[in-house]
Amino acid sequence: MAIPLPSGEDETTPFGAFAFHVHFAARTKGQQGAGGGAFAPFASVKPEISGGFSEVTGLEVTMEPKLIKVGGMNYGAIQRPGPVSFATVVLKRGIIASRHLWDWWSYFAGADGATNGGWGADGRCDVLIGLTRDFERDNDGAVTSERKAMVGWKLSNAMPIKFKAGDLNARGTEVAVEEIHLAHEGLHMRGVA
Fold this sequence. Notes:
Layout: E1 20-27, E2 35-38, H1 47-50, E3 55-57, E4 61-63, E5 66-68, E6 78-80, E7 84-86, E8 89-94, H2 100-109, E9 125-133, E10 148-165, E11 177-183, E12 187-190
Antiparallel strand pairs: 1-2, 1-9, 3-8, 4-7, 5-6, 8-11, 9-10, 10-11, 10-12
């Protein structure tokens, strides 16, 4: 699914890394990698709350090349594509009253009396991460439309593998931060049309 480029936008202008949104989409049964509507564990949580993160790291994929040594070819080996691995994606945000990230982690880990090992498909989701941009402004420079996703990534079949509450310090002035680490089965990029 391509994202259409708004009129008047320059395709060569880099996007800022500060305007993004995260969305947790339910996986459609029978369709590998397809994202549907609201993800059941977050169904009662407003999208702006479930997706309001201050930092996303780990959007990374690596392919390990396979070396093939050929007799008589002394200047290096032939390289072929090898297995692909995905980095752990870390989502960070300020701690809020909603516990949906902890509840999702508990579902997998068995914390707080949750049934241990809820690893089924109903506990996994596709995570959509989109860089956004204001694309329409009036003559005074005020935004007249909502932000639109310009480019994005999809983590297929994601599950939480680590939950971390930030350090608490009575002398500090920073916002308390929580983070959730996600393992996934595929990184896909959605570009601008």
